C-alpha cells in the first residue's frame, strides 16, 4: 500500500505539468482552432524566466571586507549582491531564497506579452490554413525559440533551487498510519501539485463565472454568431492566447526546482502533452486536465521496478499505448466534442 500511495503521488506530480501544458494547448485550439506546436517552448521560456530572475537577484559587486584577510594579511574583496544595498542583507537573502516564487510576478506579464506577440505576429496569419501548415510553422517557431535560449543560456541544465523552507520531505507514512519513513515525499513536489490545482481552478472559474469567459465559451461553440452580435471575439481570443501562454509559463516557473531548466525541455514535454490533449479529446478543457493526471499516474506505476522487470521499457511507451487503445475505442478521446478535427 505504501508503494501504491507513493506512485500515486509521483503520478500527480508529473500529471500536474502535463495537465497545465495540455490546458493551455486546448485553450488555444478551442478558441483559435490552431494546433500550436510552440506551446512546449512557452513552458521552457517560463522556466528560464525563473532562471533569469534568480541570476538578477544574485548580481553582485566587489566590496573590501576589513574583517577578513588573506594569508598575507590583506583585506579580502568579497562579492556583495546589489540587492543587499537596496533592501538590506536580511531581506536580500529572503528574496534570493524565494527567487522561484518571486519569478511568478514577472512571468505573468512577460508570458502574456510573448503570447500576444506570437498570436498577432504569426499565428493570426494561419487561422484559415490547414492544420498541417499550422503544425509546421509553430514547430519551426519552437525550434527558433529553443536555439535562442541555447545561445544565451548555454546547453547545460541550470539548477534553480526551491526556497529553503521547502527543500525537505514530508513523511506521508505517519499521516496514513504507516511506519515512519515508509512514504517520504519532497515538499516542493506537493507545492507544485497544489499550485497546479489552483491555476487550473482559476482558469475554469474565469471561463465559467465571468462575462468575458462566458463570451469566450460562446465563441468557442459558435464563433460566427457571436461575431454577428457585435462582439469583437478575435480580440478576446487574442487575450486567451496570452492567458494560455501565461499558464504554460507558470507551469515552467514552478517546475524549475524539480527539473533543472535546459533548452530542450519544452520539446520533451510538448509531445507528451499533445498525446494528453488527444487522449482527453481535442478542444475539451476538462478532458485535457483529466487525461493529464490519468496518464501521469499510469506512467508513474509503469516506472515501478517490478513492472520494468516484467516489461522492460514499458515506462517509456505506456502513455502512447494508452493513447492507441483509447483512440481505437473512442476516436474523439475521453471527452472530445463531435466535429472537432473531423473535417
Automatic annotation (TrEMBL):
Transport keyword on record: yes
One Pfam family in the UniProt entry: BPD_transp_2
First-listed, main subcellular location of the protein, grouped into a coarse class: membrane
Residues that span the membrane, as ranges: 16-35, 98-123, 190-216, 237-258, 270-294, 306-328
Keywords, comma-separated and alphabetical: Amino-acid transport, Cell membrane, Membrane, Transmembrane, Transmembrane helix, Transport
Keyword Transmembrane listed: yes
Cross-referenced CDD domains: TM_PBP1_LivH_like (cd06582)
GO cellular component term of the entry, any: plasma membrane
Subcellular compartments: Cell membrane
GO molecular function, one term: transmembrane transporter activity
Mode of membrane association: Multi-pass membrane protein
Biological processes per GO annotation: amino acid transport
Similarity-based family: Belongs to the binding-protein-dependent transport system permease family. LivHM subfamily.
Descriptive protein name: Amino acid/amide ABC transporter membrane protein 1 (HAAT family)
Organism: Yoonia sediminilitoris
